[in-house]
Amino acid sequence: MANKKTVIVTGFEPFGEHAVNSSWVAVQELEQLGLGETVDLYVYEVPVEYQAVRSLLLSLWNQHKPQLAVHVGVSGSATAVTLEQYGHNNGYKRPDNRAFSPASQCCIENGPDCISSVLDMDTVCKRVSDSDIGVAVSVSNDAGSYLCDYTYYMSLYRGEGHSAFVHVPPLEKPYCSKDLGRALQAVIQEMLNLLERDCA
């Protein structure tokens, strides 16, 4: 059997108006579905706190050395499952769940302004959309200058681009948790297929 791949998937705890965070609900659905026998899947709920995210991401990358880390967040304005291409270093003014925000307003001082995933999200989006899973998928270049974008940038930086970020809509707007779980499964399987193809 081929070497197993390690994949980390994270969702966020509740914050603000999101008393139930659909990102974590979707990740738990994904955990039930799994990613197939060739993938070791590890899921984690992430605090909506800059400093906690920073230390947790470093320990997850060091502990698991994943082929891919996929972070999932909720977007109140999203109506589709949205694949983010870039993480951004600057603009972090909005306080987190502990009322903290970075004094520098950036992820990594003197880090690159923007880091792209090694994955081409347009390709992933097209393949998942073509598979007719019944969930709309789109691509975005702006993950929003809050904990989602912060998490993505830190993970891209640590993982040398082997990271992805997926925004999901709030529950029942319009998708149920099972739909979101299936969509995540389809998206991540396509990401792994792309990575494999690029390595071949």
Helix content: 25-40%
Which outline best applies? Answer: globular
CATH superfamily: Peptidase C15, pyroglutamyl peptidase I-like
Radius of gyration, CA atoms, in whole angstroms: 16 Å
Q: What's the average pLDDT? A: 95
Report the sheet-strand fraction.
15-25%
Which stretches are poorly predicted, pLDDT < 50 over at least 5 residues? none
CATH topology: Aminopeptidase
In terms of structural class, how would the helical and strand content be classed? alpha/beta
First and last CA, distance: 17 Å
Instruction: Please report the first level of CATH classification, the CATH class.
Output: Alpha Beta
Q: Name the helix and strand elements from N-terminus to C-terminus, one letter apiece.
A: EHEHEEEEHEHEH
Strand order, main sheet: write it out.
Answer: 2-1-3-8-4-7
The major pleated sheet works out as: 6 strands, mixed
Number of domains: 1
Tell me the number of strands.
8
Total DSSP helices: 5
CATH architecture: 3-Layer(aba) Sandwich
**Oligomer type:** single chain
Describe the structure.
The structure is a single chain. The protein has 200 residues and is α/β, with parallel strands linked by helices. It has a single domain, classed as Peptidase C15, pyroglutamyl peptidase I-like (Aminopeptidase, 3-Layer(aba) Sandwich), CATH 3.40.630. It contains 5 helices and 8 strands, in the order βαβαββββαβαβα. It has helices at residues 22-33, 50-64, 121-130, 147-158, 177-199; strands spanning 5-12, 39-46, 68-74, 81-84, 86-88, 114-116, 137-140, 163-168. The strands form 2 sheets. The chain has a 6-stranded mixed sheet, with helices on both faces. It has a two-stranded antiparallel ribbon with strand order 5-6. Helix 1 (22-33) links the parallel strand 1 (5-12) and strand 2 (39-46). Helix 1 packs across helix 5, helix 2 packs parallel to helix 4 (147-158) and helix 3 crosses helix 5 (177-199). The chain is globular, with a radius of gyration of 16 Å. The mean pLDDT is 95.
